[in-house]
C-alpha cells in the first residue's frame, strides 16, 4: 500500500496545477461583443466597396452597374407598354370628341326650339288651355274673341305635342353623356396609372445613382484609403474573436484532460490497492493452509483425549502412550486445549460466583444399580463422591462426543472409557505422520493450483498496466508460501 501511495503522490506532484474551468456565461458575453464589432466593420467594408464600385468607370460587373441595367431594361419595357396603351387611348379620345360635339349640337337645337315657345313645360300649356276653354264655355265672350280663343287653344295643343319631342331629345342627350362618362372612365386605367408611377420611381432611382456616382468619383482616392483603414480594423477584430474562441476551448480542453488524468490516476490507484489487497488476501490463505497442513494430524483429538484421561484418572502415566506427563500441551507447541468449552467471562463482570451446592446446574447422572449391601460395599471401595451416583458435567460429555466415545454411566465403566481413549491416542499417533503428509500434499496441490490461476489471470493486466514488478511481487507471494510448505517439518 505504501508503494502505491508513493507512486500516486509522485504522479500528482509531476502534474501542473489544476486548470480553472472558464465561465461559459462570461465567454458568451465576450463572444457576442467581439462578433458585434466584427459585423460592424464588415458592414462598413461593404458600404465602402459599394461606393468604390460605383465610382469606377465602365465597371459593368459592379452591383450598382447591374442595378442600373435592370432599371433601364424595366424602363424600356414600361415605355413599350405605354405605347400600346397610348394608341388605344387615342381611339377612345376620338370617340369622346365626336360624342361631345353631337351633344353640344343637340343642346343648341333644343335651346333654340324652346326659345320659340312661351311655355316652359307641358303643365303650363295644359293650364292655359283649360283657362281658355272655361272662358269659351261660359258664353260671356264675344264671337270674335271666342274664335280667337279657340284658335289659340288649337295652337297650344300643337305646341303641347312639340314638348314630347323635347323630352325625347333630352333623353338622347343624356344617353350620349353617359357614353362619354364611360369612355372617360376607361381612360383612367389603374394598370396604366401604376405603370406611370413605376416609371417615375425608376427615373428617380436612376437619377440618384447617377448623382452618387458623380460624388464618389470625386472622392475615389479617399474611399480607397478608408477601405484600407477599415480592413486593418476588421483584421484586428477577427484576430481578437479567434483568440477568444481559441483561449476558451483550450482552457476547456486542459480542464477536461486534467480531470481525465486525475480520474485515471484514481482508477489506477484503486486498482493497485485492490490488487495488493487481493494479493495479501491470497498470501494469508496460503499461509493459513501452510500452517494448518504443517500442524501434526489428530492434535486436537489427542489433546482432548489426554485431557479426558487426566480428568478420569489424574495419576495416569502418559509415557506409555508416548506423551509427556508434565506438559500436556507439548504436542501442539503453543497450542492449548482444555477439556470442556471456553467461556467468555466478559458478561460475568461484577457478578457473584456461587458454590457448587448453591448452583442449580444439571448433571448427567448414571445409576449404580440397585441399592443394597453389595452396592454399598462397592461404593465404599471406589470412594465415589456420593454413593450410587456418577455425575459428569456437560463439557466432559461434549468432549467425549468429539472423540466418539460413549460417556460412562457408572464409576465401574470409567476404566473402560480410559482404555478406549488410550487406544484412540495410540491409533492416532500411529497414523499421525501419514495423515500429516497427506494434508501437506493436499495443501501443496491447492496452493500450486492457486498459483497457476493467479499467474494466468495477472499476466495480461500486468503487461497492460506496465507494472511487471507488481505482477512479479504478486506471483511471488504464492510461490513463497509453497516454498515454506515444502520446507515444513512433520512433527510426530
UniProtKB/TrEMBL annotation:
Keyword Cell membrane: no
One Gene Ontology term, aspect cellular component: nuclear outer membrane-endoplasmic reticulum membrane network
GO terms classed as biological process: intracellular mRNA localization
Keyword terms, alphabetized: Coiled coil
Stretches for region Disordered: 1-22, 365-388, 449-492
Annotated Basic and acidic residues bias: 449-459, 483-492
Compositionally biased region (Polar residues): 1-11
InterPro entries associated with the record: Bfr1
Gene3D superfamilies in the cross-refs: 1.10.287.1490
Coiled coil: 24-51, 241-287
Gene Ontology molecular functions: mRNA binding
Domain of life where this protein originates: Eukaryota
PANTHER family the UniProt entry points to: LEBERCILIN DOMAIN-CONTAINING PROTEIN (PTHR31027:SF2), NUCLEAR SEGREGATION PROTEIN BFR1 (PTHR31027)
Protein name in UniProt: Nuclear segregation protein Bfr1
Source organism of the structure: Polytolypa hystricis (strain UAMH7299)
